[in-house]
Amino acid sequence: MMSPGFTGSPLDRADRVRNDAEAYGALLADWRARVLGLDGLDPRVSDAGGLHWHSMAELDGSEELILLGLSDDKPHFVAVVEATGDAFRSPAIWRALSMLPAEDAAIYGTARSLIEWHNNHRFCGRCGHATLLFRAGWGRKCGNCAKEHFPRTDPVVIMLAEYEGKALVGRQSRFPPGNYSALAGFLEPGESMEEAVRREIHEEAGVTCGAVRYVTSQPWPFGGSQLMMACIADAQGDALVLDTTEIEDAMWVTKEEARAALEGASDRRFNAPPPFAIAHSLLKYWVSQ
């Protein structure tokens, strides 16, 4: 199975220096240090088709910096920028992700997740006072009560229900015309991954499922930091009762129809998710089985 998008970063995350002020200071002073180039939240793409990096000299000194990691002992940083709006829906981000090599997309995904986390945790959840960046950007500490806050990921299940050789795909109203994907939803407290898969499929499509098989996972950096856990569930019937507040439409597709969508065939029944989305990997895996 192909590696899901946003995985395979080549950077050493260098946890060992995050609490070592002297070692971290040396990285900040390293003339080889590079900072990720961004246009707002979108990645800048270099002439070579990869991420654009610039030197520390181009910063004004007021930025909050996150240490993304090391490559051949060369430090790589990203500056925290203000996150506004739903930038994932911009055409620019889709174009960039279609161009970037997988390793660069993984680096960008980490940076994007951390930037959004910092923007959402500028104030302490315990006392409401301002927080300050620490641990090389991998945490924030309250300036009043000293509460420490660390980046977290939200678990999400994304799944195909399978029945008699067909898989269930659905679409939300915000999807581009003709686009369908796997169903998905957040895990709730006190719920296992398998229980969440069965609950979400039943809630959104009215389909009852039995056995659930885990396939793979993917970090997803948009709208917060999420861990997408891809599964296939055995459906006990194919009758659909849609929750139209969640999905606009759903349908059962054959492997031939899914393969045509993945290949972009002219006679395809629907448009598949983009290659960097785990739903694409999940469909491709299902077709190959």
UniProtKB/TrEMBL annotation:
Keywords: Hydrolase, Magnesium, Metal-binding, NAD. Its EC number is 3.6.1.22. It catalyses: a 5'-end NAD(+)-phospho-ribonucleoside in mRNA + H2O = a 5'-end phospho-adenosine-phospho-ribonucleoside in mRNA + beta-nicotinamide D-ribonucleotide + 2 H(+). One of its GO terms (biological process) is NAD+ catabolic process. It comes from the Bacteria. It is an enzyme of class 3 (hydrolase). Its cofactor is Mg(2+); Zn(2+). GO terms for molecular function: metal ion binding; NADH pyrophosphatase activity. PROSITE patterns: NUDIX, NUDIX_BOX. Residues 151-278 form the Nudix hydrolase domain. GO terms for cellular component: cytosol. Pfam families: NUDIX, NUDIX-like, Zn_ribbon_NUD. Gene3D superfamilies: 3.90.79.20, Nucleoside Triphosphate Pyrophosphohydrolase (3.90.79.10). NCBIfam families: PRK00241.1 (NF001299). PANTHER family: NAD-CAPPED RNA HYDROLASE NUDT12, NUDIX HYDROLASE, NUDC SUBFAMILY. Belongs to the Nudix hydrolase family. NudC subfamily. This is NAD(+) diphosphatase. It comes from Sphingorhabdus rigui. The lineage of its organism: Bacteria, Pseudomonadati, Pseudomonadota, Alphaproteobacteria, Sphingomonadales.
